[in-house]
Each structure stands twice: as structure tokens, then as C-alpha cells.
Amino acid sequence: MESTESSSSKGVDKTVSVSILWFRHGLRLHDSPAFIAATSNRDHLFLPLFIFDGESAGTKIVGFNRMRFLIESLEDLNNSFSTKYGGSLTVLRGQPVDLFRKLSQKWKIAKICFEQDCEPIWKERDDGVKEFCKENGIEVVECISHTLYDPAEILSANGGNPPYTYSSFMFVASTLGKPERPLSAPNPETEAGKINFFGMTGDDDDLALCQLHFPMTPEVFGVSKEKAVGENMRKGGETEGIILLEKRLAIEKQAFEQGLMLPNHTNPDFINGASLSPHLRFGCVSVRTFYWAVQDLFSAIVSGNTTCETITGQLFWREYFYVMSVPNPNFDKMKSNPICLNIPWAKDVIAKENLKKWKAGKTGYPFIDASMRQLIEQGWLHHVARNATACFLTRNDLWISWEKGLKHFLKYLLDADWSVCAGNWLWVSSSAFENVLDCTLCICPTRYAQRLDPEAKFIKRFIPELQNYPIPYVFEPWTAPLELQNQWGCMIGKDYPAPIVNHEIVSKRNKAEMVSLQKMLAGGGLNEHPCPSNTNEARNFMWFPEICSHESSP
Ligand SMILES: Cc1cc2nc3c(=O)[nH]c(=O)nc-3n(C[C@H](O)[C@H](O)[C@H](O)COP(=O)(O)OP(=O)(O)OC[C@H]3O[C@@H](n4cnc5c(N)ncnc54)[C@H](O)[C@@H]3O)c2cc1C
């Protein structure tokens, strides 16, 4: 392929205009309106840029796995620019306004294009850059492509308020029509795809000091490898994301052909599932590309039916939590969060100890512990494992605040998304989106495990201590007679912990506590409390089949 010329910043003519594509999320070239906007002026040079500012792309609280995923995604972008368009990605470290000021002092920055980050945590950063651009006559192009809809439009279509139930959200979204179709990247074989890159040479004095070069490692940013980090199971980047998307579509296709839906829910693959959430979170795969690929596949297979509520329904949950967070900067907190109920979670010494054990995967409940260990080792947890561990920490067993769990998940999950993660924690802990503390569905950590991991492969993969325990003892190892524990090489209470709480007792007690809170809070400022539209919605959200939940009555 013919490579396009890259103009070095050193020799650049200062009268030549530069268009910047500022990456934050949206780490891809396909379906990127910001990429198209930044390359649309044929007489501008093009500078694709990522800035490590200590916060963007979730780098404020970040574990090794997610930082590695981000770096892999940037490396992939750099490779794609190089192989497809003959350019490269520039990576700088510093504060965006400072860096844009330095750039504009040297060169004529005409335009800065970026994908909208709708969550309120990014508002100050983006407002600062917009203000700087206004003062300096730089055009700003902000494109909506991280979400299926413009959250502001949803809010406005709902009379300026967030829709308090998922079904009212779905209704409002339907009034805006179908999401837009994805866009193709400029074709390098055509005129539009012949891009004149503006390349930083690396010797541009103070800017050079801010420039980072590939290869990079998380350690460069002070993020060191946690001892438990294992094999790299999910690689970041658009290239990997598209491969995964194809794999996922093949699985969905097979299910559609057999008249089934949501294969990922029916047969959870805890380790190797083709889950796209990390790639969606960083924008390596466009949500519109995913949405329309599934819709089109479904329409092609199920003739006469052009809509489907399959995994696209899950994508709407993502959308819902983004929208709910837009007008609520305290969405991730209990305090000053108008939708969150103030449940008096335990804060005593025992709670502190229990929190440590939960984080370390040492609760004595094998399914919970396997999940918590997987989180640190791989940065990944299947949805059902997230539900089980979050319920265990909060309303079911330990009665510890969801804020503690959220902080831990935000650090280690590859797909950790400020609003999506908080929204799920609010729900699971009965703090919001739940039917006013009325969740009769309680996850039993042992029965749940027996149904979802019947051969205990997942448990044994992450808890080698229980390697020799047969079924059913592996699910409740403390029930094994001492001589068998000895024979299997793992004494409970010594080699693997005894349960830190008795689930049967504490779950009943906690349910009773919820009921009394419900009575106390009734009529007292619950007007804004969002809740499910009906029991089915709650059940579907939690993926609760009848047999692994139980009515936990007071
Ligand atoms: C306590 C807790 C914390 C969570 N934190 C996050 C998070 O930080 N980031 C995140 O992307 N998901 C989060 N989830 C939601 C969900 O677990 C993951 O999106 C899902 O496991 C990803 O797997 P998948 O891609 O195979 O999902 P699929 O079932 O294939 O769904 C497709 C996509 O829909 C979206 N989605 C699916 N379920 C949900 C949901 N419940 N809420 C919002 N969006 C959803 C995701 O983008 C997902 O990739 C959390 C769930 C819980 C219970």
C-alpha cells in the first residue's frame, strides 16, 4: 500500500493548520465520527493524540490488568495508523489544557475533535478544553459515538428528568428512533483516506519532555503488577476487539438458529467467554457496530421479525446507567446522591476484617472466593459472579456498603466503567433501581455455585486448595468430615478458611433489616427512588432462575 507522507513538526510551516483527534475512550478507527471530522479538511495536517492525565480512560484508580489493556489498545491504534495510513499515534503526559496551549504556541491548531464522554466526572476536563479553544479560536468538534443515543436527548425527551425505570428509559429511547448506523473509517485506497500526518519528532523541547514512546508498560505510570496477576487472557485493542466480535456473533448466530436467546446467560463461560465489555468500555469496539451486527444477524435468521431484545437489551442497560449518571455527579456515592437510599451499612471492626477477606477471596465460600481471586488475577468476572459477590458483600451476607465494593471493582475490572459499575452496585445492594428494599431474591452462594459451576471447574481453577475435594463437598467444604478433609489435603479453618458468616442465618437477619428499613423510609423522600418496572425485569437483571434464589423471609 502506498504510504502517505508524514510532516515532521520540526520542519512544519506555522501557517499550516493542524486538526487534532483527541482520544480518551473510542480507541478505534472504525465508526469514529471524530476521526472523520479530524481528517475532513484536506489542507490540514492530522495529529491523533492520547493524553495520560492521570484520570482519562479510568486511570485514576487502576490495577495492572486494566492499565495493560489500555496500553495494548493504544499500541494497536498506533500500529493501525502506521500500517493503514502511514502515520502514528502521539502520546503525551500532562494536563490537556497545558498541552494544547503548548501545542498551539508552536503550531496553528485549527480544530480539536473528540468523542463525547458523557459521564459528569469528565465535565471539568472537557469544559476546560472547550473554554481554552474558545479563547484561542480553535474549533471544537464533539461527537456522540460512545453511546447509542445522545444522553442529553434522552433526558430532554423525558422532560428534563432521568427515566426512573428501565422500561420508561426504553420507551423514551424508542421515541428517538433506532440508534444511528456505524460509520466506516476513511478508506486509505481513496482520496479521503490519504492522510497527511503531523508527526512529533521527539525533539520539540518542552513538549518532547511530555512525549511517551512505544513500547510502554504499566510500570511507567507507577502501576506495578499485583502478585496474583496471571496470564493475559483478554488483550486490548481494536484488532482483538473485532476478532472477539466475530467470535461472539458466531455464538449468537448458532443460538438464533436454534431458536435460543442469550447463550452467554444460559451457559456462562466464566473464563474464556467472548465478552465484549472491556472493548466497549475503552471504545475499541463501537457500541453501534455491536448493536447493528446483532440486529442484522437476527433479522437475517428470524425472518419477518426485525427487532430483537437479545444482547442488545443488555446494551441498553449500559446506556441506561450512563443516562442516569449524567445529571448526578454523586452517582458513585451514598452522600448527596438523590437516588441512593441511606442504608446503615456496618462499619465496625468485624466489617473491616470481613471486607479484607472478601477482597482477598478468603470468605470460606468457594464460589465467592474463586470470583474474587479471578478479579485480581484476570481483571475479569462473569456477570453472575459479579452479582453473587456484590450481593454477598452487601445486602445478603456481610452488610457492608456497596461503595467499598465499587471502589474495589473500579480498580480491578478491565471493563470498569464509572457509571455502569456504580449503577450495578446501586442495584444489587438494593440502594437504587431496586424495588425499595423489597428484594426477596437472595443469592445462596452454595446453591448458586452448584447450578452455575456444576463440575466445580471454576472453583478448582482459582482455589487450588480444594483441588481434591469431590462434588458436592467442594461447594460446602466445611461440611466434609475431618478425616476426609485430612485425606484430601485441605483442613478447613487451616488450609482454607471456614465460612466467615453463616449464610442461612445472616441472610434472614439482613432481609428482616431491609423490611424494617422499608417501613421506616416509607413515605420519607423515596419519590426519586428508581425501581424495576416489574418482577420480571428485576429477575432478568439479576439473571435469577427460580432454583438458585430463595425467598428469604423475615
Ligand atoms: C456489581 C456489578 C458491577 C458491574 N460493573 C460493570 C462495569 O464496570 N462495566 C461494565 O461494562 N459492566 C459492568 N457490569 C455489568 C455486566 O456484568 C457486564 O457488562 C457483563 O458481565 C459483561 O459481559 P458480556 O460482555 O458478556 O455481557 P453481555 O451479556 O454480552 O452484554 C453485552 C453488553 O451489554 C452491556 N451490559 C451487559 N449487562 C449489563 C449490565 N447489567 N449493566 C450495564 N451494561 C450491561 C455490556 O456493555 C456488555 O458487554 C457489572 C455488573 C455487576 C453486577
Please describe what this structure looks like.
The protein starts with 5 loop residues before the first strand and ends with a strand. With 554 residues, the chain is of the alpha/beta class. It has 22 helices and 10 strands. The longest helix has 22 residues, at 64-85. It is globular, with a radius of gyration of 25 Å. It has 3 domains: 1-144, 3-Layer(aba) Sandwich (Rossmann fold); 238-306, Alpha Horseshoe (Serine Threonine Protein Phosphatase 5, Tetratricopeptide repeat); 349-551, DNA Cyclobutane Dipyrimidine Photolyase, subunit A, domain 3, CATH 1.10.579. The protein has a 6-stranded mixed β-sheet. Strands 1-7 form a two-stranded parallel ribbon. Strands 9-10 form a two-stranded antiparallel ribbon. It binds flavin-adenine dinucleotide (FAD). The site of flavin-adenine dinucleotide has 28 residues, from helix 10, helix 12, helix 15 and helix 17.
